[in-house]
Amino acid sequence: MEKFQRHIALEGKELSLGYRKGKTSKEILSGLNFQLFSGEMTCLLGPNGVGKSTLIKAILGQIAPFSGNLSLEGKDIKTFSLESLAKQIAVVLTDPIFPGNMTVGQLVALGRTPHTGWSGRLNEQDRFLVEKALSDTKITYLQDERLSEISDGQRQKAMIARALAQDGQVLILDEPTAHLDLVNRFEIMSLLRDIAVNRGKGILVVTHDLDIAIETADRFWLLNCGTPLISGRPEDLILSGQVNQLLPSDKYRFNLIRGRIELEGDASEFWIEGPQELVFWVKKSLRKAGISEVQGQITIQHNPLFLTYSGQKFGTLEGLIQYLKT
Ligand SMILES: Nc1ncnc2c1ncn2[C@@H]1O[C@H](COP(=O)(O)OP(=O)(O)OP(=O)(O)O)[C@@H](O)[C@H]1O
């Protein structure tokens, strides 16, 4: 049973977005339709320059749509003042600037600003929400630490806690994993998914991290130049092949078995005997080394690993490749 009633938190209908300068206007996105659901984490993916930030600016009320409709909780976004929009939509941008001597606790308390005004005086409810945001992001232990003295991953969690303390219905994050290592990227995205599911928030994450988005997102929005926004469960878009829209050219394709993008059009074939998962890595290594064919069979033995080719035994791929290249 769902804890929260799933509903459309944010909706765009036939949106045309772009920029005006004097009398000229430049349309970046047109015919844009989407629905962001509460209780779900949606990942917005698309190539550089396609208009992801432009869409976020429109959602935040920073640019007005040329045409079409944008609604929050069923109400036209134009009817919200910037202050009331700030209570409903929290945003975490890629490179936020906050003083390094600010503590994590002070940063998270800033999330309450749309509610407290600039006096920043917190009442009991505000303090409760700040503490809850710290504990939901598992950084209560960091609350007295300065921003300049914590790691990038911890700082990103603090930024998420600040957005959470704002307690709006919608959370938007622009590349929240950009500077993080693999473990932290997983941790942040899993945390966001948990927040969406357990707190009933509609979370939109702009990311270029397809691998981690596949593992964690409930829904993808794929944005590509000149085509309508595609929305669906990641697995549906993979099975239908629509995920290939993200790829810049026919040289790449999404490998359904490996679950990631790979170079396509490589005609090299090798005769390799051994466990399938090991064969994959041997082929990969040979191709990267510029080897497109070998004369005989390569045999792979597992545990301990050794490779046999032309009566020779090799303990590493490096050894085999050196032999093949001489
Ligand atoms: N203030 C602006 N005035 C005019 N054009 C702009 C403005 N900001 C962005 N653009 C243009 O809008 C287009 C989309 O930019 P946007 O930043 O939305 O792309 P993006 O998908 O977020 O890219 P990235 O993945 O690189 O962050 C680009 O061609 C960009 O030059």
Automatic annotation (TrEMBL):
Keywords annotated in UniProt: ATP-binding, Nucleotide-binding, Transport
SUPFAM superfamilies given in the database record: P-loop containing nucleoside triphosphate hydrolases
One GO MF term: ATP binding
Sequence ranges assigned to domain ABC transporter in this UniProt record: 10-250
Protein's UniProt name: ABC transporter ATP-binding protein
Species for this entry: Algoriphagus lacus
